[in-house]
Design brief:
The structure holds two protein chains of two kinds. Chain A is of the alpha/beta class. Chain A has helices at about 1-15, 35-55, 75-90, 100-115, 145-160, 175-190, 205-215, 230-240, 255-260, 280-295, 300-320, 325-335, 345-355, and strands at about 20-30, 65-70, 95, 120, 140, 165-170, 190-200, 220-225, 245-250, 270-275, 340, 360, 380-385, 390-395. Chain A folds into two domains: about 20-145 and about 280-360, Response regulator (Rossmann fold), CATH 3.40.50.2300; about 145-265, Rossmann fold (3-Layer(aba) Sandwich), CATH 3.40.50.2300. In chain A, about 45% of the residues lie in helices and about 20% in strands. In chain A, helix 3 runs parallel beside helix 4 (about 100-115) and helix 11 packs across helix 12 (about 325-335). The longest helix of chain A is centred in the N-terminal third of the chain and has 20 residues, at about 35-55. Chain B has one domain. In chain B, strands 1-2 form a two-stranded antiparallel ribbon. The longest helix of chain B has about 30 residues, at about 275-305. The radius of gyration of chain B is 22 Å and the shape is globular. Classes of the chains: A alpha/beta, B mainly alpha. At the A-B interface, helix 1, helix 2, strand 2, helix 3 and helix 4 of A face helix 1, strand 2, helix 13 and helix 14 of B.
Chain lengths: ~400, ~350
């Protein structure tokens, strides 16, 4: 009995180690605080791999492009452990990023930087990621840094004629970071931040916080997740009449907010989110692919996930020999001009051009995906407000 | 390929060794003195943050970093954790077991909230990164261009030397350092266990009124065990920070992944037995980590067998499956070894004296 179990376990271990393919490690926060958000992102990654394999696979031999998924649980400990296994045991060519910023930074500094492996994150948005590298070029992401969204929101506030505002943010890494960027940008552009306070997520009542902040301004910039306190705080603010105008970012943008607060109370509410320009041919190509596979094309970070998985395949194809060390340079080369424009799903075309020694320039579903020197992309953002009881988004140009 | 597995085994030994140090610390408190400490995560966080603030290079994000030598950071991490434990001990140690548990849970949460909200000092929820890791840190410029390395070569020579090493060179050294620290603590605790101090601890744990009646200062001894255990946990916290290189208060110091896991390791290995504590730590961490490989392999095998059936959703759910299987395995092991795999051996018995 024991021997059977042992040999079965050994067989399972060995079957993860088959080398007849190009493999990429994909740690995603499958468990932890945000599994619902991650599930369609994982589907988008799988769709990109399926597109690659259906159109001739990798290299001349048509090797299969394999996504090895692991669980990073939005947690530095789990991410470091998962990436250690992916790099050492599964010998992956690159890491297709963990979802959360803390997990992304920890796995990079602890494991993948020392091993010289490139990380391409699908949704890590912390501004700290831009400056974390010291002489290497191994960190990339297809999601825009919060530094950009915070600035976009500050400009939006000033454009609406708001000159003084109170800031309240949930005390977690995402909301604290974007609040800091917003406050700095708003003050630098001539506005006045009257108060800037953290609140603990998931409290039953925020009346005391709202009362303190409400005495300083009628406008509130609220950075929170709608599911863990954001709605409660907004309701308390409206009940006590402390604020009448609200601004906020992705974390608050949900139909749940309208359902619970009521559209009639949300006349002066504007939330920004990172968005895709749905008028581009790249987005149209992606939307057609996503619809065919039953994936929600516009959900947060889902197009970014597809772009990341597709671009890593292009970069590895470009290296020609599946060499970890050259992935980073190849990633820069395939994503930016000059070169023939490649849209989502156009694998066979890209492969033919690369095989002939030509240059390509991938234009992604989530944006043009041209990396700057920090490996960041410029993001597009949209502003949403309530029109006729539903969110209505317009792109910020 | 095989070489990669060797590196993975090294990482298992490193993390297992860090957890073993946590478990040894808990063994002093629970195994020796019977103190129900459910606030391990608090002492781990104190150790990790102290170490991180003292040893990181200067940063605009948090207080310092002061760039002190790494051993100094680890030493101060131990001392800080000991001082915090001493203060808590003075107030709470008279509480009986379950009340002490409630108090320590609360204190651990308070410590975490302090680290989360004192943004000026700790960078709040965004955490501290670029924490130097032992051995690997020598290849950073600020270390190879200062003493002691600058006594042996110029910065340029060191830079060239480190570039000539394979990128995993520090891994065996870091793993050995963790294991060496673990071994030294083990030997010290084993000595303490067999000494009169250890026997007195057993007496206090088993029958407090009797120990008090024979003139033992029960309160002082319990504080002693609490402080020693916490200092060991503080050191483990400092090593944990080195391993992760980024610490933040919410997810890194999640009670379910520190406090709970260390308790399971100690109970499964055998509380009161130092070797049991270490065995439990390595065993549980190996199961925790390697189960992911086995489950991924199993899913691949299933996909190969049932070709054409869509198993994508199975992959996405593998994480939850893994948690459940680990829980199930723990149940089975604990049913089979109710007192732990290596049960406690009383020091007074002939078996306990070497």
């Amino acid at each position: 009995m024991k021997r059977t179990i042992f040999t079965t376990a050994a067989a399972m271990l060995c079957s993860t180690a088959v080398m007849a393919e190009v493999s990429v490690g994909n740690p995603m926060a499958l468990t932890g605080p945000i599994p619902d958000l991650v599930a369609p992102m994982a589907q988008a990654v799988d769709l990109a791999a399926a597109n690659v394999n259906a159109q001739g696979g990798m290299f001349a031999g048509g090797e299969s492009y394999k996504i090895i998924r692991a669980d990073s649980a939005c947690d530095p400990v789990a991410a470091v452990d998962a990436v250690t296994k992916l790099i050492n045991v599964n010998s992956v060519s690159a890491i297709l990023g963990p979802v959360c910023s803390g997990a992304t930074i920890a796995q990079a500094e602890s494991v993948s930087f020392p091993a010289g492996v490139t990380t391409l994150s699908v949704s890590a948005s912390s501004p700290a990621i831009s400056t974390m590298e010291d002489g290497t070029d191994l960190m990339f992401r297809t999601a825009a840094s919060d530094a950009y969204q915070g600035v976009a929101l500050a400009n939006l506030a000033l454009a609406q004629g708001i000159t003084e505002i109170a800031v309240s943010y949930a005390n977690d890494d995402y909301n604290a970071a974007i609040a800091a960027v917003f406050s700095a940008a708003f003050a630098a552009a001539g506005g006045t931040v009257t108060a800037n306070e953290a609140h603990e997520p998931s409290k039953a009542s925020y009346r005391s916080e709202v009362a303190t902040l409400g005495s300083t301004s009628d406008n509130l910039a609220l950075f929170a997740y709608y599911g863990s306190g954001g709605i409660t705080l907004m309701r308390n603010a409206l009940e006590t009449g402390a604020f009448d105008t609200f601004l906020g970012a992705d974390g608050m943008l949900s139909d749940e907010v309208i359902a619970q607060i009521g559209a009639e109370n949300m006349g002066n509410v504007t939330f920004t989110t990172s968005a895709s320009d749905s008028t581009t041919p790249a987005f149209a190509a992606w939307a057609a692919l996503a619809e065919g596979a039953g994936i929600p094309a516009s959900d947060p970070f889902v197009p970014n996930s597809y772009d990341a998985a597709f671009m890593l395949a292009l970069a590895i194809e470009k290296t020609g020999d599946d060499n970890r060390a050259s992935v980073s340079a190849a990633l820069r080369s395939i994503s930016s001009a000059p070169g023939e424009v490649i849209l989502p799903g156009e694998w066979a075309k890209a492969k033919a051009i690369l095989a002939a020694g030509g240059d390509i320039n991938y234009e992604g579903a989530a944006g043009n995906q041209d990396f700057d020197e920090n490996g960041d992309v410029a993001g597009l953002f949209s502003q949403s407000s309530v029109v006729d009881g539903a969110w209505s988004a317009t792109l910020i140009k | 390929m095989d070489f990669g597995i060797l590196l993975y085994v090294l990482s298992l030994l490193t993390v297992g060794g860090i957890y073993a140090i946590f478990a040894l610390g808990l063994n002093v408190q629970w195994g020796f003195a019977g103190l129900f400490n459910v606030g391990i995560v608090g002492f781990a966080a104190v150790g990790a943050y102290t170490y991180a603030l003292l040893t990181t290079a200067g940063s605009t994000y948090h207080l310092g970093g002061f760039g002190f030598p790494l051993p100094f950071g680890m030493l101060v991490a131990m001392i800080t954790a000991a001082i915090v434990a001493g203060l808590i001990g003075l107030i709470c140690i008279r509480l009986r077991s379950d009340y002490l548990a409630i108090a320590t849970i609360g204190i651990a949460e308070i410590i975490k909230l302090i680290f989360k909200n004192e943004t000026e000092i700790t960078n709040g929820p965004r955490g501290i990164n670029k924490i130097p890791r032992f051995w690997e840190h020598f290849s950073e410029e600020r270390f190879y261009s200062s003493w002691p390395l600058s006594w042996f070569g110029t910065p340029e020579a060191w830079d060239a030397f480190f570039n000539s090493l394979p990128n995993w060179w520090w891994q065996p050294f870091f793993a050995s350092t963790v294991l060496l620290i673990m071994y030294v603590i083990y030997r010290m605790l084993e000595r303490a266990r067999i000494a009169p101090w250890g026997r007195m601890m057993t007496a206090i744990r088993e029958n407090e009124p009797a120990a008090r009646a024979s003139g033992k200062n029960v309160t002082a001894r319990r504080i002693e065990a609490f402080v020693i255990g916490a200092a060991i946990m503080g050191l483990a916290g400092a090593l944990f920070a080195q391993h992760l290189r980024l610490i933040e208060p919410t997810n890194t110091f999640d009670p379910a992944k520190v406090t709970f896991l260390v308790w399971v390791m100690l109970i499964l290995g055998g509380s009161g037995n130092n070797r049991g504590a270490m065995l439990g730590a390595f065993l549980i961490w190996t199961i925790w980590s390697a189960s992911e490989l086995i489950i991924t392999g199993a899913i691949d095998l299933l996909i190969d067998i049932f070709d054409g059936v869509d198993m994508g959703s199975l992959r996405t759910r593998a994480g939850f499956l893994r948690m459940m299987l680990i829980g199930l395995l723990l149940q089975v092991i604990l049913q089979k070894f109710p007192r732990g795999i290596l049960p406690e051996v009383r020091p007074a018995s002939p078996k306990g004296i070497k």
